[in-house]
């Protein structure tokens, strides 16, 4: 039995995570809800108990209903219990990208207004490098806690409570209460903090029509992305199960699917293509993966279906919205993101919000018939909220076209972002850090096409007079200042950036130039930038 949200019932509680957990723990207490790579398994009864005891521990630390709490943790049982425990209290889960450091980390911590953080031991020293706003205390899990920047530091044992009775609340959790704040990449400015209600997450998560109660969803996208929290919630809605995986790994993907009996997964960007590059095997169809969400739906999707026998689906989503476009099984319209699902209106508009003709490119705007089914704003940024919601529609900032059959096709980003291997990269944030280098006078970050898929990051810079500059030194300068996926692969030095009469950088000209003969390539120079492994066994 799946929950069904009825928008005609303002007091409906079925979308609130606490009630979903209580429901399934009563209906099917012995059914497995979560399996982890270390072999740990939670039944629905276990999951409810973990949520309750963690909620009681958080309450003893002073967390109250409506409070925001940072969670800076890799995909793990710890991250799951913290998220569920916070929402069980009616508090707000604020996950942070593991790659954040420096100004990105400062911005997220300050914007969150959190007083408490739950932080992995491999990360917490970075807090000593930034101004922390209201953050006063942290609980350190996954290793030894050490003093940091005047913070009160609690050991992991603080999250273990003996009290197993559900904590009492000041009031009933409402479906429109904020349940999480998830940070975007930032596009025309610093990352925005997207506020999401229980209704919003519920509507986003229930929108995939192919999910079933017997599914086990691979959680290989991080819980600080909507692509991580959404499938977890989807399985709570359907009474299914999840397999918590710390990261997508081409080498072990299929063995993980078999060992953990995974039936569905999301493959973003180059993931599917990388799996197709693996040598063919007689075991290619010897697996449990029944369905797969493939985003974007490129020419490797039918190849994936043909080779592995997995049913292919696609959709379009953003952190702020609730999966407005959903495709049919094994769609033939390559490049399509699907059609509008029930309960959603989608239009393509020009700069004046007037609808464009079929076949023309316009910005996608969205609204829903269920109140609170989209984000209710950006925390601490009322101007950005008003701009995104003008004329009663949410403006995605993405350009699409629609064909005569009603299929929508993503064309380009209208906002200034770069998409690199599943991560959205803010050109504004890349430029801010490159400009901090003492030799750099001007900087523009642009997307150039990758030979694999999606984009690579290029920094186009102009130097200060008589400055000495080594692009390899710039990479080392940036390593401690930004996330690994943001560090440019290409660096091009120019005399000056092209500008409009109003002094804005003409990035379109830089994109047209692309990778020029004088562009430096860090990969060709043998310099690697890799994701830092968090929470794994160290030698």
Q: What is this structure, in a nutshell?
A:
The chain has 539 residues and is an alpha/beta fold. Helix content is 23%, strand content 24%. The strands form seven sheets. A seven-stranded antiparallel beta sheet has the order 15-16-17-21-20-19-18, with no helix packed on it.
Walk me through the topology.
Layout: H1 17-27, E1 32-36, E2 41-43, H2 44-60, E3 68-72, H3 77-88, E4 92-95, H4 102-112, E5 116-120, E6 137-141, E7 152-154, E8 178-183, E9 193-197, H5 198-205, E10 216-219, H6 226-238, E11 241-244, H7 253-260, E12 264-268, H8 271-276, E13 291-295, H9 300-308, E14 311-313, E15 315-316, E16 325-326, E17 336-340, E18 344-349, E19 362-368, H10 382-388, E20 394-402, E21 408-413, E22 417-420, E23 423-426, H11 427-434, E24 440-449, E25 455-463, H12 471-478, E26 490-493, H13 507-513, E27 520-521
Parallel strand pairs: 1-11, 3-4, 3-5, 5-6, 6-7, 10-11, 12-13, 13-14, 25-26
Antiparallel strand pairs: 1-2, 8-9, 15-16, 16-17, 17-21, 18-19, 19-20, 20-21, 22-23, 24-25, 26-27
